[in-house]
Design goal:
This protein has 16 helices and 15 strands. Bound molecules: pyridoxal-5'-phosphate. The site of pyridoxal-5'-phosphate has 13 residues, from helix 9.
Length: 456
């Protein structure tokens, strides 16, 4: 059944919100009704798309609805009854705890299911016996097929310079962060080198840096207030986790060593404005393709000595990185690059539309309620899509307005689990919510947010 896009969007809103409307009418003030009718106004939602972004944006609205089809929970088509039966009929949905604390990228599962055999690999029993992959490479455990696909993907997407760079593979970019800290610090220094990052910073940095109580490096907090003389390491996360903003180093002193964590510098999250060109950059399949369970990340490193030290760290730590995972990652990256070059079912186009659909639904739900506020982003020209796009981060950095001082605690009372601002060196008035969960969980979250605003 071919239901027009605008009708399907309004249908989805009705499915999500209308069953409660009759009951709520009695307690609603005129303002509440206005809020709800605005949230239901599809025309308004459509107008929220910038003109220049029309193709991707129109597709995105459709994706916000259609992607239900792609979770295996939802098997029916996008007819109204198909949408209706999934959201409304699940028992216990209103009471369920909605856990959006972690950035678990399960929203990508539908796409990879659709790709079927394209990314399936068979590894015979005789393969991957040796620890070694290529002794001529600085990173001797780096599987050549994986290295080739890393270079190719960066060229296709245009998000990083790979010429004159050494690739170091890691068990996730988490291992590479530690490898980089090890490589950039000096065992002969009089005291541990300070590690800083501008708040709000990725909540794992402080514990990653300090949990081993290393004598090489120590966490020194918010880069904005760092005023100690001497060498330091700054972690620059761009786009940033939790707030999605593009970042540059903020300390900006001569003895600074920079680690650029570019886990989210991919077109579904932010416009690709130019290829990143830093001394040490980190990427991961966890956020680029959604394969967090594969545990594969990679570093692009300018200085050979730094790449050698990082390799040494991983050698001491895990004697290399799973070859099976590298082969699987190579296959996935190849499928992504092939898809982009052939123009059909491009992973990034698909993911962009999914994320755009989610952000539009979120804005429509939150912005007229007054209880919460969302960050605003400026569109830029994305060289990958060849048009202006808006940032649509992997996390929602939600602010509770008015008297609510503990946003995480407030949401927890409504059975939404998020990660409070304090974990990121920020204010408890803010909390981080993953935008990467399944469509089912995301829609339950939207419905819960809407209900909270009606109760208030
Ligand atoms: C900014 C940032 N860096 C690194 C990581 C770790 O990623 P990986 O799964 O590759 O270890 C994450 C995971 O959420 C992240 O958000």
């Amino acid at each position: 059944m071919n239901v027009p896009v605008s009708f399907r969007v309004s249908a989805l809103f009705c499915v999500l919100f209308c069953p409660r409307m009759a009951k709520l009418q009695a307690v609603f003030s005129l303002r509440h009704m206005l809020v709800m009718s605005l949230a239901l106004n599809v025309g308004l939602i459509m107008r929220m798309f910038p003109d220049s972004d029309e193709t991707l944006a129109n597709d995105a609205v459709e994706a916000g609805v259609n992607s239900k089809r792609e979770t295996h929970v939802v098997q029916k088509s996008t007819t109204l009854s198909g949408v209706n039966s999934t959201s409304a009929d699940r028992p216990g949905r209103r009471e369920r705890v909605i856990n959006l604390d972690h950035g678990d990228p399960t929203m990508y599962e539908g796409y990879w299911r659709q790709m079927g055999e394209k990314t399936t690999i068979t590894i015979p029993g005789w393969q991957s016996l040796s620890y070694i992959s290529d002794m001529t490479n600085v990173c001797w455990f780096l599987v050549p097929e994986f290295a080739e696909e890393v270079v190719r993907l960066h060229q296709v997407v245009g998000n990083a310079v790979t010429e004159d760079r050494h690739i170091v593979v890691g068990t996730g970019s988490s291992q590479l962060i530690l490898a980089a800290l090890y490589a950039l610090s000096s065992p002969d220094a009089a005291e541990p080198i300070s590690v800083v990052s501008a708040a709000p910073y990725y909540s794992s940095y402080p514990s990653m840096v300090d949990y081993q109580k290393s004598r090489l490096y120590k966490w020194a907090g918010d880069a904005e207030s760092f005023n100690k003389d001497g060498p330091y390491i700054e972690l620059v996360t761009s786009p940033n986790n939790p707030d999605g903003l593009l970042r540059r180093s903020v300390v900006n002193r001569s003895q600074g060593l920079l680690i650029h964590d570019l886990a989210y510098y991919w077109p579904q999250y932010t416009p690709i404005t130019s290829p990143s060109d830093h001394d040490l950059s980190l990427f991961t399949v966890s956020k680029s393709t959604g394969h967090a369970g594969m545990r594969i990340g990679w570093a692009l490193v300018k200085d050979r000595k730094v790449a050698e030290k990082m390799t040494r760290f991983i050698e001491l730590n895990t004697i290399g990185v799973s070859k099976d995972s590298q082969l699987r990652a190579a296959k996935v990256l190849k499928a992504v690059s092939d898809g982009c070059q052939q123009g059909e079912s491009s992973f990034f186009k698909h993911s962009y539309k999914l994320m755009a659909g989610r952000w539009k639904l979120l804005r429509a739900t939150v912005e007229y309620g007054g209880l919460f506020s969302l960050p605003q982003f400026c569109p830029s020209f994305c060289t990958f899509f060849g048009q202006e796009t808006e940032p649509q981060p992997a996390f929602l950095w939600l602010r509770c307005e008015g008297e609510i001082e503990d946003c995480e605690g407030f949401l927890r009372k409504h059975k939404i689990i998020s990660r409070g601002g304090k974990h990121f060196g920020g204010s408890p008035k803010l909390t981080r919510i993953s935008m990467l969960d399944t469509q089912e969980t995301f829609l339950d979250f939207i419905e819960r947010l809407s209900n909270i605003q009606q109760i208030k």
